[in-house]
Design a protein that fits this description.
The chain is of the alpha+beta class. 34% of the residues lie in helices and 28% in strands. Strands 1, 2, 4, 5, 8 and 9 form a six-stranded antiparallel beta sheet that branches. Strands 3-10 form a two-stranded antiparallel sheet. Strands 6-7 form a two-stranded antiparallel ribbon.
């Protein structure tokens, strides 16, 4: 969903945020940085952006009063996107605002990085993005270096592991009037001090557009077929693949999704339909993520999810059978002489 192979780090501001409740202070940098060292630049891109390659959920910035400009992060980000020369000024405002809400006794102090990226890809499109990251966890590292007659050994305390981003968000310069597209990382445990990042600082809501709805239904249905069906029914792997293929065919051919139509055309089994609807309902309740019964299908979301739909039947380490269509053209059997399973495949042309 998010890739950064074309991304560049244009500008970076670093501040330090203490815990206000613990009478710690914040320190704001006088100026922003333009990283010239290529190796450092690449390390920072890896540290800041690589965790987002595994992020699937996209959020919006919001405010309980439905006035986006009352969301401080939205307001400061919008000013930066409108006028890049105000980047560092607004990074200081973001730091000050984060300090003001850091009033839980367990919130850790740490460095706040505000970065401006160009050409970060999200859902197939390139956009500029503002990154806001906080490093709270420090580690010690050993350094080995050559010296006369051997090697020397030293250490670095309070260093940052670039493979472990504590907290971060990427705000993409798109869908401005809807609260931008926002991707979030928060490695803090789900506890009282953790909610301040998503709920108090960013004020997020789950995006609920056609892309998200399409992606969620396909994701829920795939999990239902691959993980849940075995619990309720006896079903072969070829039947599972057929159900996945039929669902993908539905989404590729239709312009809009209708739950009743989808259930009857794709699942086509009363008990199976009921099981799927219950599975979907449990998903909505568990993740607080309602899925509409009707919506326009997003082609971009279908293309993305198609990559995760597996239509491969793996047989030991000898054969892979790709099933793209009619499952009636493949039959499973058992050979008593060899004491082995087999598949019989029917076809007209060999290519």
């Amino acid at each position: 969903m998010i890739t950064f192979f074309e991304a560049t780090l244009a500008e970076l501001s670093i501040h330090r945020i203490g815990n206000k409740l613990q009478d710690e202070f914040y320190v704001l940098s006088e100026n922003s940085m333009h990283i010239q060292d290529e190796m450092l630049n690449q390390l920072l891109l890896q540290y800041f952006l690589s965790p987002y390659e595994k992020v699937n959920e996209i959020y919006r910035l919001m405010h309980p009063n439905n006035d986006l400009n009352l969301n401080e992060v939205y307001h400061f980000a919008a000013e930066v996107f409108a006028d890049g020369s105000r980047f560092h000024e607004n990074s200081k405002k973001l730091a000050t605002y984060l300090y003001e809400i850091s009033n839980h006794p367990k919130i850790k102090s740490g460095e706040l990085y505000v970065a401006y990226f160009e050409n970060v890809q999200i859902e197939g499109d390139l956009h500029d993005a503002i990154g806001i990251f906080k490093s709270e966890t420090k580690e010690s590292y050993l350094k080995v270096y050559p010296e006369q007659n051997g090697f020397g050994l030293s250490y670095e305390q309070e260093a940052i592991n670039i493979s472990k981003l504590d907290k971060g968000c990427l705000i993409f310069n798109t869908d401005v009037t809807e609260g931008f597209k926002v991707a979030v990382i928060d490695q803090t445990n789900r506890s009282a001090e953790a909610v301040y990042w998503k709920d108090e600082f960013l004020k997020l809501k789950v995006r609920n557009d056609n892309y998200s709805q399409t992606q969620n239904v396909l994701g829920v249905y795939k999990s239902f077929v691959t993980d849940k069906l075995d619990e309720d029914f006896e079903i072969s792997k070829t039947d599972k693949i057929d159900l996945l293929n039929r669902s993908m065919k539905y989404f590729k051919e239709k312009e809009s999704f209708d739950m009743e139509e989808f259930s009857n055309e794709v699942i086509a089994n009363k008990e199976g339909i009921e099981s799927f609807k219950n599975y979907k309902k449990n998903y909505e309740e568990e993740f607080d993520m309602p899925i509409a019964d009707t919506f326009d299908i997003s082609d971009a979301a279908v293309k993305k999810q198609a990559k995760a739909y597996k239509n491969i039947l793996k047989l030991d380490k000898n054969f892979h059978i790709y099933i793209h269509g009619n499952k009636e053209l493949i039959e499973k059997g058992f050979d008593d002489d060899r004491s082995m399973n087999y598949y019989k495949v029917f076809f007209k042309d060999e290519q």
